[in-house]
Amino acid sequence: MSAEPAAAGPVGGHVLILGGTTEARRLAEALARGSSYRVTTSLAGRVAAPVLPPGGTRIGGFGGVAGLAAWIGAHGVTRVVDATHPFAERMSFNAAGAAALSGVPLLALRRPGWEPGPGDAWTLADSLAGAAALLPGLGRRAFLTTGRMGLHTFADLDGVWFLVRSVDPPAGPVPAHLEVLLDRGPFTLDGERELLARHRIDVLVTKDSGGSATAPKLAAAREAGLPVLVVRRPPVPEGVPEADSVPAALDWLRQHT
Ligand SMILES: NC(=O)c1ccc[n+]([C@@H]2O[C@H](COP(=O)([O-])OP(=O)(O)OC[C@H]3O[C@@H](n4cnc5c(N)ncnc54)[C@H](OP(=O)(O)O)[C@@H]3O)[C@@H](O)[C@H]2O)c1
């Protein structure tokens, strides 16, 4: 599915935003407010009813590095901003490969990760599989907020009850004991407190997604004295410059025009 973007005013180039995050939407909104770029945001198509940004949109995979490079060439893309989620590792590596093939500058827009504060009891895992191995040692009633896509990783943990929160219902293998809560952030501290208490949660599992929309769960866990199992981020591909905010990404675009 695609909608061709309408260029407003003089065209400063075609920016492809690899999206699926609040930052990607904010960047598209900022560029729609009077910039001279033509903008297309690309979404993977994982969410049934995505919040669409202004400008052009296209939905669905490109077909790996070669497919993305072909799309960049066919649509006259002059800049790529990888504003995918910090855990969308494959897409970020595809973007790095396709940008190198096409000779088009690429920026990774990544919101800062979370840091533990006083009173936090965090255990770090290098992957979802690592988190699944550590979880039974930390609790028996887990609030799992790592998304529905990796849920199969926890499917064999029969001794743990899960409260799973995701935007769309999970598919594929899931843990034997679970309740699914369909919801989309932002979430409030009051809401998270209430959720932890109502479900007698004794451990929180999260990716280090960063950002404010889903951070209240960390404060609620701290208040309740709960352990938090945090999955570390994969690295940004080597050599790709990073911006940690939408204004910083706009600066990069200005410098690369
Ligand atoms: N992983 C998370 O925790 C998470 C959380 C919130 C939102 N998201 C968003 O959900 C989407 C999918 O995440 P993921 O972790 O499944 O990605 P992934 O594992 O890195 O990517 C798998 C494949 O999905 C396609 N794809 C991913 N992002 C795309 C995009 N923005 N536009 C077009 N195709 C895309 C690509 O297919 P082709 O190889 O065919 O091009 C890619 O190879 C991303 O847009 C991401 O920003 C992810």
Give your account of this protein's structure.
The structure is a single chain. This protein has 257 residues and is α/β, with parallel strands linked by helices. Helix content is 28%, strand content 22%. The protein contains seven helices and 13 strands. A seven-stranded mixed beta sheet has the order 1-4-3-2-5-6-13, sandwiched between helices. A six-stranded parallel beta sheet has the order 7-12-11-8-9-10. α3 links the parallel β5 and β6. α1 packs across α7 and α5 crosses α6. The radius of gyration is 20 Å and the shape is elongated. The protein starts with a strand and ends with a helix. The N terminus is likely disordered. The site of NADP nicotinamide-adenine-dinucleotide phosphate has 25 residues, from β3, α2 and α3.
Structural class given helices, strands, pairing? alpha/beta
Contiguous helical run count: 7
N-end to C-end Cα span: 29 Å
Count the E strands: 13
Order of helices and strands: EEHEEHEHEEHEEEHEHEEH
Largest sheet: 7 strands, mixed
Taking all residues together, what is the mean pLDDT? 94
Portion in beta strands: 15-25%
Q: State the strand order across the main sheet.
A: 1-4-3-2-5-6-13
Supply Rg: 20 Å
Low-confidence stretches: 1-10
Shape: elongated
Ligand species: NADP nicotinamide-adenine-dinucleotide phosphate
Specify the helix fraction band. Answer: 25-40%
